[in-house]
């Protein structure tokens, strides 16, 4: 089968095929305690406020969110429409993404790219060549910056995708300014050092489709992992399934209406020399409704070597991570199965 969606719709499953069953289900995958907590909320209207006191307070909250969670919600409210993402555009983006996954399998197969840096790749699982257990997930990955790419179908996808990705790049830039200041650096430090605001910065859109699963307790949409890049900006179609590891427990994330979920990636951890950690998260599945998530990963140009900022290696704090070219890190991640921070562990130094 080409996709999980095709498998579900063509067979009428009542049980999970053995190739999708996580053998360690009883030990870790589903049986750790899951709780509900409120993740930090960052209000963009305050982050971009001309009131220095309100902005300073928000930057402090942003820094604390990165320190304690590596994960926060950014509320899109009326006051930030001009530099945020309008609700209509968000809804259109979800609809167009759902329409892509609803295309005939032969239409999607033209994007079944085999190489990591193919402009558009559509497939299933994570890396079916190395995955020991298949994931209950179909995906669409598009390199949208510095060179914009889009599928030919659905017909309206390209226009919506271009506008949406520009908006999320703007959001990432503002967040990185606040994060820089929370670290005691100039507001433009991360954007300039990582060339995130440049015409060469890298942005990858990853859309995931998690079809209904007859035995959700046996399968996994995405196993515990951390993201590459500096920040990932995520929204979903109203169906929950994202869980974040926090203080040894899985926390179910229930985003506020019209909010974006934002998490720090491995390259934020490298750049900050471990002060701000990348967040370990996973996607669980359900038996009732398809879940769609749309994430944009924001990183430097592919040829950029990311290493700890010298300004954050002071007061006896040595270098905690080796530097690595961003492109090489993506290749390393793609060559392995997803497993926690296994890629980042390759770069850790004993200090």
From TrEMBL:
The keyword Cell wall biogenesis/degradation appears for this protein: no
Residue ranges of domain Fe2OG dioxygenase in the record: 200-300
InterPro entries the record matches: DIOX_N, IPNS-like_FE2OG_OXY, IPNS-like_sf, Oxoglu/Fe-dep_dioxygenase_dom, Plant_2OG-oxidoreductases
Transmembrane found in the keyword field: no
Keyword terms: Iron, Metal-binding, Oxidoreductase
Listed transmembrane segments: none
Family, similarity comment: Belongs to the iron/ascorbate-dependent oxidoreductase family.
Name of the featured protein: Fe2OG dioxygenase domain-containing protein
Organism whose genome encodes this protein: Hibiscus sabdariffa (roselle)
